[in-house]
Amino acid sequence: MIVYLTKGDITEIEADVIVNAANSFLEHGGGVAYAIVRKGGKEIQEESREYVRKHGPLKTGEVAVTSAGKLKAKYIIHAVGPRYGIEGEEKLEEAIRNSLRKAEELKVKSIALPAISTGIYGYPYEVCARKMAKVLKENWNLDKIIVCLYANYAYDVFKRIFKEEGINFIEG
């Protein structure tokens, strides 16, 4: 498994799976979710609504899968992260871990992850980076895990914390 740390737009990443930081109802109205639907097409939102109709809202830490529409990926894993100060940090780990598990279940080789819960849900980048580092240290049967960060500050924080936590990664 190779970990890549990159700065940019997750909708432009070439990976089998892109992870979307989602809400429980899979309504993709802002942040990473909005960008994914805007570029990938309305079918992503339609599939998400169909999932919720059939299975109900997701709990924090759970994931759902849809197609990736017009994006370069095959699938989107929608991960429901916690709200900072309301739900525990273990739920953030769970969202990251369940995303990677689902990618393995789909038998794909590459996945791109954003900084889940750091947008409107308010998690500090430092906390997200440490939780992601902890999960990345587990044994994953994936060839490539890309951590894609949009902002320079987020990238710098993840780079520093991954180094502190002993995560071997390639910048790019």
From TrEMBL:
Taken from the record, one Pfam family name reads: Macro
The UniProt record lists the Macro domain at 1-166
Record PROSITE patterns = MACRO (PS51154)
- Name of this chain's protein: Appr-1-pase-like family
